[in-house]
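A note on notation is needed here, since sequence and fold are reported together in a single record. The reader may check this reading against the record printed directly beneath this paragraph.
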Amino acid sequence: MTRKPRWWWRVLACLPYLLPFHETWMYAETAYHLHPFFEDFEFLTQPFLESLSLLPSWFLIAYFIIAYLCVVRRKEWPHFLRFNVAMGLLMELSLQIVGIVTKRWMPRAIYWGKLGMHFWTFFGFAFLFTVIECVRCTLLGKYADVPFVSDAAYIQIPYD
């Protein structure tokens, strides 16, 4: 944890951030202000989004279980990779929780109204730039410091 990881570990550690990025992209498209912004990048993301839609419904559950048990909890992998996998999983879970809470328990007038539009615009940009910042820190060989999430990721990784 004291020296910079090699370039292949840094690139490999960026892969777990693809799912939070994908989920952020899908939630942010519901905000009316972000759709024209995202149309410019549609050609970059469409192949990835289509490939995820072809996967079976149980794939994400299997991905979480396998990534947690086989990467995060195993000491054979470098700490840098395990930390970033845990961060990617926690960010994806937090985004899904926010999506479920706002979609199921908020009144429809607020969720689809002007307040919901402003909420998803703010939340989409904030979470999108948080994921981009995590990828940037990972590529530079640094540990991303997202409040509460990075602390939870450190707790999940055994040191001994």
